[in-house]
Design brief:
With 333 residues, the protein is an alpha+beta fold. The protein has 6 helices and 12 strands. The longest helix is centred in the last third of the chain and has 18 residues.
Length: 333
Amino acid sequence: MADHLDAPGFKSPNLNAKIDITDIFAFQKPGEPGKSLLILNVNPMAPTLADQFDPQALYEIKVDTNRDAVEEITFRFQFSPFDQGHQSVTVFKATGKQAAEMKPSGEVLFENIPVCFGHEVQSVANQDYQFYAGMRSDPFFFDLQGFLDGGKFTGTDLFIDKNVFSMVLEVPNQALGTNSQVAVWGRVLVPEGHNGYEKADQSATTLKAEAHLVQIDQMGRPLTNIIFTKEGDKNLFNRTLPPQQAALFAGKFVALLEESGRARPESQALVEQLLPDVLRYDYSSSDGFPNGRNLTDDIVNIVLSLVKNTPVSDGVGPHTDLLVTFPYLGSPH
């Protein structure tokens, strides 16, 4: 699983799938190389585990423009309370010092946009941006059962009929900085005490202005937390900022790669690519992963082959329900 159900609190009574990132994508817009698509998916197995976005959470897509793993640009998504099947979202773009703030700040790109919970595609656009939020078909593909069965793959895609909740933002490339080589990652902030932390205030229905927000989930490269961290480290990894990750996890990642037969120098070089956990993206190129990530990139085969130090294929391919136009993700099942 790319990042599905890795945390927060997956095995605890306060499971909150609404704040669980499943995937993040960054790719050049097909047929229009001057624009890019940024997609942040949450809520695995939607709507079974959750039927709405979390109104107490702040969802973010981070952009680093100078390769220091610190954000210069942040796109934020804040959702209203869910009311009789309806929910709306406001989209912010923050730059400079505001990009690092842990609150809903920045220029408002879209305000009170309805969330789509059915098959309809109600997107909004202005001169520069286009945006959609709602339930879509999960684009991730993986023979999970074969993986859990010791790598005895049968080509059965667990995710072929699954859904996620998506935030899809089309941006002009210049909105990502003048240097085409950027880094992208997603994260979710929640009030301290909200799911995954002690003393949760379950009576609140919206994000309070005075709330002290903390990072509860994050993702850059696919499968990093799923494959490379041990069970006891997964929540810690999700709460760690990218510049801090190498110091905490590089040694453990190297040890895992050495177990696959790699020499230490090679393992160390690979870990330098894995950490910090950000998605490197050159928006001047339409190439897929590891240049950003397209919806059809077979990242399972790529990452498992890296870990096993030998070619691996789970026999599963991209989903055929993807759209050729915005928002590109297939209709929900």
